[in-house]
Write a structure and sequence with these properties.
5 helices, mainly alpha
């Protein structure tokens, strides 16, 4: 999760990591906090706007995967503060930091919604993998473990999305 760590004032903490490592972790986690909030909102966007013969099934699936993300927002923010940083999840932070593509205006139809949200979950999972590697390189198994849990849920969501996108009887 290559982010540019700027010198930040960190609060004192009992987490036994050097200041420079905590600083880099806080920057990375705030980046992911923005993306998690953004992805949650984009998933709700799909949930609210689905139409078609599979409405109920798709509507409920989008709501379920959005619900899987919600607890991770607090977990990521609380890890930022445990490391001595300030969690930055206000709307302006999300807009300025999220690397996910913006939700396409006017997207309609089950297939188009499914493609749009799946692309965002793919990107999010890739960002999580990078962040897990970075946490490992910075010798922070607690952050690595936290992000592995987020990745597990993101990949479960991708499984649900892919199962809807693959026509019956075809290999996917």
């Amino acid at each position: 999760m290559t982010t540019t760590a700027t010198r930040t004032h960190l609060q004192p903490t009992r987490v036994a990591l050097p200041h420079e490592q905590r600083e880099a972790l806080v920057a990375s986690l705030n980046q992911l906090l923005a993306e998690t909030i953004d992805l949650h909102g984009q998933t709700k966007q799909a949930h609210w706007n689905v139409r078609g013969p599979n409405f109920m099934q798709m509507h409920e699936m989008y709501d379920r995967i959005a619900g899987m993300l919600q607890p991770h927002v607090d977990e990521i923010a609380e890890r930022v503060t445990a490391l001595g940083g300030a969690a930055e999840g206000a709307a302006a932070h999300v807009v300025n930091r999220s690397r996910l593509d913006a939700w396409p205006e006017g997207v309609q139809g089950e297939h188009a919604l499914l493609e749009a949200i799946t692309a965002r979950y793919d990107a999010f999972a890739a960002h999580l993998r990078d962040a897990i590697s970075e946490a490992s390189d910075l010798d922070d198994p607690a952050t690595e473990d936290l992000l592995t849990g987020v990745l597990r849920d993101a990949e479960t969501a991708l499984y649900f999305l892919a199962a809807h996108a693959t026509p019956e009887g075809s290999a996917g």
